[in-house]
Amino acid sequence: MDTAGRTEQRGPTGDLSSQWARLDWKAELKNNVTTPAQLEKYFPLSAREKADLEQIVAVHPMNIPRYYLSLIRPDDPNDPIRKMCVPGSGELIVVGAMGDTTKDPYGDDKHDKGNGILHKYSYTALVVATEYCAMYCRHCFRKRMVGLSNDQTVRNFQEASKYIVDHPEISNVVISGGDPFLLPTDVIEAMLESLKDIPHLNYMRLGSRAPVVYPMRFFEPELLDVLRRFNRDKTLFVPTHFNHPREITPEATQAVLNLREAGLNVHNQAVFLRGVNDDAETLTELMNELVRIGINPYYLYQCMPVSRVRHHFQVPLKEGVDIVDRARQQMDGHAKRFKFIIGHDIGKLEICGRVDDKLILKQIHARSEHPEEASRMLIRQLTDNGGWLDDLPEVELA
């Protein structure tokens, strides 16, 4: 089940000899593991683990492709790949030491314009195209809605594009979810078609973890043709989501190569996760490997204080900022270009570093109603356990 010994990639459209490259991506989704009974066929579960799983998936569904399961080392209960896809007992803890009750730390709800449009920053519109993903990540900050029927996804993309037309301050659109690449290719084509002639749009982003967890989606020539064609009209970016170097398999590498050969720019937005990548060596290897396969390291997000996530995944900022600094010391210039970020209700904050017990942050994006807050500096008092901006006392600038 480990990735060692996998056949190297060949060709521009996913011509790999591994079993995954030969599967129909739509048909294979039906084989995803969604129940504890199915999961037990891959590695043993104790009676307690099965009971916990049943309780968790009743609230937050489990959905794991067989491909991603094959990356798990079954004899290691602390395997980082397993932590990201298999529900753990930590998800039963709703209230933790720092008040783990936040449902919407990024402020999605208050910026919901209806029909899947979130307009948080004046220049960016985010379209929640679907609630479905190839895999339901256990650390997802939208886990309250992903995989469940909800009203925050787009119902009429023509109406969504009309909202964008009517707001000329919008220079870019993020199509997100869920995962937009899990939609049929003709639906993706229709979405792009509705946006390509809007004159004030400079570029579009299609946010996706599918290159990581379900790379066979990008072996479909029809999809690549659509992306190649639309990339001539509007520059297309794919922000993806590798969190651990073992996710960078030959299949994932080929998926990224296919996107790059279609002319798309691929960036990575990792999440800083306890037990997954919270050491300097793993972070260094991850960023170096991303650069090696042609992905630009873009953001490293501090794990949000989401209910059933924060307790077991969030790294205290006092500890985390030192880990990130040690990792950066080992990286070359391209690998260390990422920003360490808090995606807060007030906007995006770059964690610049610390001076003794003072955390230094710079606000790089501000909500549309408070544009004057962009580029301001913030200083907070670090505490041993504080993992979020709101946990740290303010320090007044002299």
Notes on the protein architecture:
The chain is of the alpha/beta class. It has helices at 25-28, 36-39, 47-57, 66-69, 80-85, 157-165, 185-195, 210-213, 221-231, 250-261, 280-292, 310-313, 317-329; strands at 112-114, 117-121, 124-130, 172-177, 203-206, 235-240, 265-272, 296-302, 339-344, 347-355, 358-366, 377-381. It has a 12-stranded mixed β-sheet with strand order 1-2-3-4-5-6-7-8-9-10-11-12. The longest helix is centred in the C-terminal third of the chain and has 13 residues, at 280-292. The chain starts with 24 loop residues before the first helix and ends in a 17-residue tail after the last strand. Residues 1-15 and 96-101 have low confidence and may be disordered.
Could you state the oligomeric state of the chains shown? single chain
Number of strands: 12
Question: Approximately how much helix is present in the residues?
Answer: 25-40%
- Global outline: globular
SSE succession:
HHHHHEEEHEHEHHEHEHEHHEEEE
Order of strands across the biggest sheet?
1-2-3-4-5-6-7-8-9-10-11-12
Number of helices: 13
Low-pLDDT runs of 5+ residues are 1-15, 96-101
Largest sheet, in brief, is: 12 strands, mixed
Rg measurement, Å: 21 Å
Distance between the termini: 57 Å
DSSP strand (E) fraction? 15-25%
Mean pLDDT: 89
Query: Which class best fits the helix and strand makeup?
Result: alpha/beta
